[in-house]
Write a structure and sequence with these properties.
- Strands 1, 2, 3, 4, 5 and 6 form a 6-stranded antiparallel beta sheet that branches.
- The termini are far apart.
- The radius of gyration is 28 Å and the shape is elongated.
- It contains 3 helices and 6 strands.
- The protein has one domain.
- The chain has 166 residues and is of the alpha+beta class.
- Helix content is 22%, strand content 39%.
- Keywords: Signal.
């Protein structure tokens, strides 16, 4: 009986200590958290090697189509994903772009920011490049090509995109 009383007392004391410790924790506001090292966020690096067999546009009214064949996207890309508050969003996006009525498309609150760092050192030959090997009338590999095109060394560093729900 005494052993059960001691065990129950020990458990009650342990639970009290945890309850006191838990009640001593206080939430940190976004402003305070922004000063803490090791903030939230994710970084992504990718070495793209994308191949698309063809992209076909069809005009059903004219019964005609054009195909873009052997589309390639290659190169390095790096991005950081963070959550920023309403003030930061207004400072970084709304004000610099002279948006006078942000409420018409943005209701306030936190925003997800995807940024491609401007300071990342990338060999210029490794920047993003996109090419199309041939452009043909109709949906076939046969026939004469109108030509090809390439966009080389697409430098997206310093670009930011913002995402929010509405």
């Amino acid at each position: 009986m005494k052993l059960q009383l001691i065990t129950k007392s020990a458990i009650a004391t342990a639970l009290s200590v945890f309850a006191i410790a838990a009640s001593a924790m206080t939430p940190i506001q976004d402003e305070g958290l922004s000063q803490v090292a090791g903030q939230d966020g994710v970084s992504i690096g990718a070495d793209l090697n994308v191949n698309i067999g063809s992209f076909v546009y069809t005009n059903r009214t004219e019964n005609a189509s054009v195909s873009f064949n052997n589309i390639r996207a290659r190169g390095l890309i790096a991005a950081a994903i963070d959550v920023v508050n309403q003030t930061t969003f207004a400072t970084e996006f709304v004000a610099p772009n002279s948006i006078t009525a942000p409420a018409s498309f943005y209701g306030g609150g936190d925003v997800v920011k995807i940024s491609l760092p401007a300071t990342i050192g990338v060999d210029p030959t490794k920047l993003l490049s996109v090419s199309v090997e041939s452009i043909r009338m109709g949906n076939s590999a046969a026939g004469t090509s109108f030509g090809s095109f390439a966009m080389n060394n697409i430098d997206l560093r310093g670009t930011s995109a913002y995402i929010w729900a509405h």
